[in-house]
User: Fold this.
Amino acid sequence: MKIIKEYLSEDKEVTLTGYIQEPSKEMASVAIKPAMLVLPGGAYLFLSDREAEPIALAYAARGFQTFVLRYSVGARARGGKPLAEASAAIGLIRKNAAEWHVAPDQVFTCGFSAGGHLSAWVGLCGEHKPNGMILCYAATEIYSTDRDLELRGRGEPNRIMDALLGPGYKEADAEALNLSNHVDGGSIPMFSWGTAEDALVRAPGLLRFAQAYAAAGRPFEFHMYQYGEHGLALSNHITANGRKSYTDQVAEGWLDLSVNWIRRNFGEPEIVDKPYEAVPGLNKDDK
Assistant:
């Protein structure tokens, strides 16, 4: 595996890290792989390591070229910078598809919480869109008028809105960040999961986003697990950091379900008699 790092900002704070599996004569039929761009969560205020490299490596083990985008957060995110950065990352992956052994028509995003919001945001509104998106307890509704008024009444800022829009934001601009408003007849396929016990990204918001897809007649798959708190990530010991509540054996199945969903919708790896002939640098003498 070759690890690459690209800088998407002049100050080198925004990075795209790639985990590239290079072609092998023993696995020539899958030399060109789908790509998964991982977008960690953190309320647009920080970036969760538990939802970054471990996710990329898990998808790599399932046959993907994988990437992690560390996008702008906090005050650096103002002006919708994360959307532009995620779009640029997708464009860069497709531009380098040959060098990075990526199928350019199979580029996907996988985002968690705020990263799930970004996954859907770039999927619905980005200049460069993925072909499909995986949304993990995605905060597709991050603005609430009632919640905003409650915070203002206590003299507290809405930190997520301040991060994305700056102080003094308009309600219409904030409401535009609720992504059900952008689902239409051309929306890309979507896989989504969450838990009924999640106290931060609540089930009704996830259901409303799925209902928007159903109303628009667009392809989607949705799973609501009964148990599990916010922030499950892989939902196993790898990302639990010793915390039992970050594990659930049933919810752990989301990863394989998402891979199966991608294969059903975008195709299985092709089985060919002489796969080496399609791979640069490999020929029959290398069998």
Q: What stands out?
A: Residues 143-173 form one domain.
